[in-house]
Structure formats: structure tokens, C-alpha cells
Design a protein that fits this description.
The structure is a homodimer.
Chain A lengths: L28 H12 L4 E2 H8 L3 H13 L3 E8 L2 E8 L1 H22 L16 E2 L1
Antiparallel strand pairs in A: 1-3, 2-3
The structure holds a DNA duplex.
Chain lengths: 133, 133
Amino acid sequence: MTRKRKTQTPPAESGRFSYDGLDRVIHEKARLGILASLAARGDGLLFNDLKNLCSLTDGNLSRHLGVLSEAGIVEVWKGQQGSRPQTMYRLTVSGRQRFTDYVNVLESVVADAQVKMQSEAGPRTSPPGWAPA
Amino acid sequence: MTRKRKTQTPPAESGRFSYDGLDRVIHEKARLGILASLAARGDGLLFNDLKNLCSLTDGNLSRHLGVLSEAGIVEVWKGQQGSRPQTMYRLTVSGRQRFTDYVNVLESVVADAQVKMQSEAGPRTSPPGWAPA
DNA sequence: GCAATTACTTTACATTGTAAAGTGAGTTCG
DNA sequence: CGAACTCACTTTACAATGTAAAGTAATTGC
């Protein structure tokens, strides 16, 4: 009388290529650029610097910075440059650590991917008994 | 009478950290795992192999493979193993190239990020004239 | 003083990743 | 024989999210 389970087969424990360490908040094209910029300049960058460095529109950059600051990865400082308001963005200590951890996983992705170079040779046969979908 | 432009300031030409080469189709946690797996095994992998290697659910894996095959990055072969149907997935030639290109950009991201190691020292002062947001 | 610029923020929308449910062929058990 | 179950996926539904356009508030130029 045991009811049949309706939920789909759950994923395995932790696959060789699951890359659990790829933090979703960091693993985003635009955010990667922002973080790389901020990592290079430890003393912070202004909104417009980031905008130019990362080739983002104002709105786009603003939202991404919001995500990063809410995640505690960047900190925000308001100030004045001349008579115009300026906002400065800087990596937090833990943000720097999280980014470092992320980059370490990236390195392993690159390493994994470069194994392929060795298996690249081969005549590329159609596998016998298999038909194209 | 020139109308004021309503569209937001467009992004710059190509910023130092814009990472244009990060192909959206490839730059996705799950898909990265799938491609790394397939790159390692040039002769292809079965659905279940990928499922386990990448720790994905069936539905999830299916959709991602759909995206990758529609993009021409992986090719799909139907066959039989014993009496059960099996599908084999393999990188296409151009897919392998695209993945290689992507990984090269990843390497530059890692390199950019590791510049920070040098600027890591410092007493972390609050910048004078700036107030926390 | 009024239009335009600067420095962002907010809103609206379309894309998309994910889990749950569905499908259809094959196998097993009574 | 056929109902129940498994296997190998596919389809669907939904919530999350990245992006462009529009909005805002202060400041500057004419």
C-alpha cells in the first residue's frame, strides 16, 4: 500500500562536475566584471568608473550593485566630488574572501576544461549503433 | 527643436572588465558542468552519466541539454543499450571551439582577479569625507 | 529662470533556471 | 494476461532575475 513516489529522482550527492562553489550572486557576467574591477582597486571605485569599466547602463549597474551590497559583498559610501554627489563602492572583507573562493573554483573549471586538449585528436566517427536525434 | 534623448546613456565601447567573450549560453553553472564533462569525454556521455556527474535532476538536465543542442554546441544520438533507449551527448566541433574560447576568457577573469592579491595589504581606513550609505 | 546634464533609482517586462508532473516504452509479478 | 512499476527522458508551470526605459532630484549652463 505504499504510495508511489511522485517527486523526480533527486540529484546525486555531489557530482564531480557540479561546481557547488560557484556562488550564484557572483557568477554573473556583469557582476564578475564589477568584482574584478573592485578587486583590482582595493580603495574603491566610483559609479561612473564602474559603468565605463564594465560597459553597463546606469540602471543595470545600479541593480547589480544593489544585489552585491545586499549580499554584503560590497559596501557603499556616499560623498561629494566637487559639488556633485558621488558614491564609492568597495569590496567588504568577507566579500573579498567570497570572491577569492569563487575564483578558486573558476580555476578548477579551467583546469577541468583543459584536460580536453589531450583528447582533442581523433577522426570523429559516428558511433556505431547510434542515430542522430 | 531636437528632442531630448530619453534613452539612458548607452554603455561605453568596450570596457576593460566587460568580458564580452563570456557567452551567455555557456556561462551558466549547470551548463558549465555539462560542458566540462563532455570536454573530458570526447566520445560522449549518456544522460545518466551527466545527471550524476553534474548532480542535476532529470528535468533540469533535459532543458539545459536542449539549450546546448539548439545552440549547436552539443549533438544528440539516440540508441539502445540492452533493451532500454539511451541518448548519447557529445560536443560538436564548433561547440568544442566555443567552449575553448569561453574558457580562455575565464582564464583572463582569474588572472584579473588575482591582481588583487597584491593590493590586499592595508589597514582598511574609512575614506575621509565619505559616509556609509 | 528654464532647459539640459549628472548621478543615480525605480519600474516593467521578457527571459530563463528549476522542480514537479507527464509520457511512453519496456519489464516484472501474480 | 494485465496491472503495477521502473526507466529515460520531455513538458509544463512558476518564481527568480537580468535588462532597458522611464523617473527623480540636485546642479549647471545659457
